[in-house]
Design brief:
This protein has one helix and eleven strands. It is mainly β. Strands 2, 4, 5, 6, 9, 10 and 11 form a seven-stranded mixed β-sheet that branches. It starts with a strand and ends with a strand. About 35% of the residues are buried.
């Protein structure tokens, strides 16, 4: 059973930065897509970034591309989301998620259906961006 614990959320002014962390444990397999999702009040949960545990390409939704960077430190079993140039519309609960993957293609993270494909979730960390 994969367990995910996020941290690093907080309140920041528009234009500021935050770095989210997600510590993972309990891997049974070696290949996962690791993703960051967010959910604002009254909105559907959306995928914003994903990467493969074996390294390689990183994937972003159009709404965060160029501002957010996903990375991982496999020695620490930790996934990160560096968020720069934050906007009020980035305000949401941010979740770390994982799904077993047969290969490095994690490009589907921004599809509306992706939230049903990921089967391991953290408890979430709140990000609030004020104008």
């Amino acid at each position: 059973q994969v367990q995910l614990v996020e941290s690093g959320g907080g309140s920041v002014q528009a234009g500021g930065s935050l770095r989210l962390s997600c510590v993972a444990s309990g891997y049974r397999y070696s290949s996962y897509c690791m993703g960051w999702f967010r959910q604002a009040p009254g909105k559907e949960r959306e995928g914003v970034a994903a990467s493969y545990t074996g390294g390689g390409s990183r994937y972003y939704s159009d709404s965060v591309k160029g501002r957010f960077t996903i990375s991982q430190d496999n020695t620490k079993n930790t996934l990160y989301l560096q968020m720069n140039s934050l906007k009020p519309e980035d305000t949401a609960m941010y979740y770390c998620a994982a799904k077993r993957s047969s290969g490095p293609d994690c490009s589907g993270v921004s599809r509306p259906s992706s939230r049903y494909e990921y089967n391991y979730w953290g408890q979430g960390t709140q990000v609030t961006v004020s104008s």
